[in-house]
Here is the input.
Amino acid sequence: MTTEKQPQSPLDDAPKSVQLAVDLIQLLEENNIDTETAIAALQITLDDFKRKQQTTD
Here is the structure.
C-alpha cells in the first residue's frame, strides 16, 4: 500500500500564532462579520486574554 504525501502548505511551518490568526480571519470573513464588529470582538478577546495572563504570572 502506497501512502501519498499531502502537499505541504507554507502555513504548516508558520508559528501557531500565525496559523490561528489565519483561521480567525477566515472565520470572520466566511461569516461576513463587518470590520467594526470584528475589531470590537477581537479587542474584547485580547483584553480578556491579557487579564488571564496577568493572573497566571
In short: The mean pLDDT is 91. Helices lie at 16-30, 35-56. The first helix runs from residue 16 to 30.
